């Protein structure tokens, strides 16, 4: 068989190079869902208290970010965008008003631990 | 198709972790290289041909569903129908899908089509490819997933909106992140400008009426590993049709029709007695042996296997609200007490390779293991 024929019949990739994923993921661990752990937290200054829960495994990092708002400066004003935490109910960050700014977050992602299919 | 027991590599955990495969073992093993499946080229050609043909049949079925307004069968909210049809007419880009097959006694039968958020792409495209490099690199494997993903993104590049291609998935799942970042890796290699934002963090700007990322950069193209059936029921779902950027969501809205098991009776109606299809209906239709499946479910949940009125096997779960379909029972083949399902990938409209998941029961659930394969003969 000629080399060109071999190439036509081959079913596998000739060469694989990864430029992003190995560095990003090699040291990650997989968090496990822990729906028993619950925390009650205030989402922002305009929403009521919400009963939420979060997956375990993130420890201090999660707690650090859970109560810190993030946002950005634009046109000399600071716009609060929400909180860097999946532990906050999406309802806590929904909606917009002059305090929150024009961007609302948390409207997706409340529906499961993994899409796995 | 043969099941071969083999010795795992001495350092297999380190070898797969070096690839970024961090979920090879959870509370139960997931990646299992103590066994592999061996296929003949004839069998692989059969799978490849069926994958191509079924993909084209699925596109025909999507058109048929729209032409005949069959949405009620799919449990799709009425408000999203115009968006689905627009995404079809405007040819919103798609990159991939995975057909799940049962291969037994020379017969290859479609069990379902994971058309929207198929996972195990990384295991199939990367981990098993490197396994074969160590095992016997002179052997072949039905796996050009990596090449086809890069080629696919290169082709789609000119059809995307100007701006970045964002990628999104849930924040707290390494499996989803690995699959998403792998696809992003391929897009970067195709020359696309990409950015990751977790779906939990996506923003909606009320003033400009567009979706934004964490830096409030407007989104115009978005690959999502997050199912449409969840999106349309969540708070931001209603913003999708009113998005001023008319963002391309990949997979596109029309995939809602193909990722739903209501597709299976439609395919059987359109292509009766096709050799790769099983009889399927919206009721038991007089069948004595059938599988009852929710039209929307994941990881083998809420499945009933019925044989002559007796419940052969079942699985529990929280699905079924939207309705069920009934498919003729065609049991998975049994190899040493294990039951393999073949996941056959279609990438950029072409058959691209397979991955095999093995279970201890007839229902492939979230305890199934990914097992590599090769072509021999």
UniProtKB/TrEMBL annotation, chain A:
This is Uncharacterized protein.
TrEMBL record, chain B:
InterPro entries: GSPS_pre-ATP-grasp-like_dom, PreATP-grasp_dom_sf. GO terms for molecular function: ATP binding; ligase activity; metal ion binding. It comes from the Bacteria. Residues 12-375 form the Glutathionylspermidine synthase pre-ATP-grasp-like domain. The keyword NAD does not apply. Keywords: ATP-binding, Ligase, Magnesium, Metal-binding, Nucleotide-binding. This is Glutathionylspermidine synthase. It comes from Chitinophaga niastensis.
């Amino acid at each position: 068989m000629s080399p060109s024929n071999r190439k036509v019949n081959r079913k596998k990739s000739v060469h694989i190079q990864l430029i992003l994923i190995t560095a990003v993921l090699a040291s990650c661990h997989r968090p496990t869902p822990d729906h028993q752990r619950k925390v009650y937290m205030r989402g922002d200054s305009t929403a009521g208290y919400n009963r939420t829960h979060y997956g375990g495994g993130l420890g201090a990092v999660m707690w650090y970010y859970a109560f810190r708002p993030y946002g950005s400066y634009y046109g000399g004003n600071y716009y609060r965008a929400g909180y860097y935490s999946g532990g906050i109910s999406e309802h806590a960050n929904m909606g917009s008003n002059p305090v929150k700014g024009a961007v609302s977050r948390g409207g997706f992602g409340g529906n499961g631990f993994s899409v796995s299919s | 198709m043969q099941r071969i027991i083999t010795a795992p590599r001495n350092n297999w955990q380190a070898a797969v972790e070096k690839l970024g495969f961090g979920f090879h073992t959870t509370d139960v093993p997931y990646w299992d290289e103590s066994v592999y499946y061996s296929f003949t080229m004839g069998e692989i050609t059969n799978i490849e041909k069926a994958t191509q043909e079924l993909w084209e049949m699925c596109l025909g079925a999507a058109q048929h569903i729209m032409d005949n307004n069959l949405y009620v069968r799919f449990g799709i909210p009425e408000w999203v129908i115009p968006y689905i049809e627009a995404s079809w007419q405007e040819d919103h880009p798609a990159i991939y899908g995975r057909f799940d097959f049962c291969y037994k006694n020379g017969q290859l039968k479609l069990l379902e089509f994971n058309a929207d958020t198929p996972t195990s792409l990384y295991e199939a495209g990367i981990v098993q490819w490197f396994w074969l490099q160590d095992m016997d690199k002179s052997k072949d494997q039905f796996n050009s997933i990596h090449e086809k993903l890069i080629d696919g993104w290169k082709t789609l590049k000119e059809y995307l909106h100007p701006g970045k291609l964002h990628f999104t998935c849930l924040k707290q799942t390494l499996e989803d992140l690995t699959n998403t970042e792998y696809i992003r890796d391929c897009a970067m290699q195709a020359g696309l400008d990409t950015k990751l934002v977790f779906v939990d963090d996506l923003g909606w700007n009320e003033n400009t009426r567009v979706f934004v990322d964490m830096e409030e950069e407007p989104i115009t193209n978005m690959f999502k590993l997050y199912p449409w059936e969840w999106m349309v029921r969540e708070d931001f779902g209603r913003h999708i049709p009113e998005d001023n950027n008319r963002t391309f969501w990949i997979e596109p809205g029309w995939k809602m029709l193909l990722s739903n098991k209501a597709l299976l009776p439609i395919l059987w109606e359109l292509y009766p007695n096709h050799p790769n299809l099983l009889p399927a209906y919206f009721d038991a239709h007089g069948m004595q042996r059938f599988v009852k499946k929710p039209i929307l479910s994941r990881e083998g949940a809420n499945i009933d296997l019925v044989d002559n009125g007796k419940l052969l096997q079942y699985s529990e779960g929280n699905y079924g609200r939207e309705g069920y379909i009934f498919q003729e029972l065609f049991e998975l083949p049994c190899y040493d007490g294990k039951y393999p399902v073949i996941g056959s990938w279609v990438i950029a409209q072409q058959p691209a390779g397979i991955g095999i998941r093995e279970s201890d029961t007839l229902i492939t659930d979230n305890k199934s293991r990914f097992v590599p394969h090769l072509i021999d003969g």
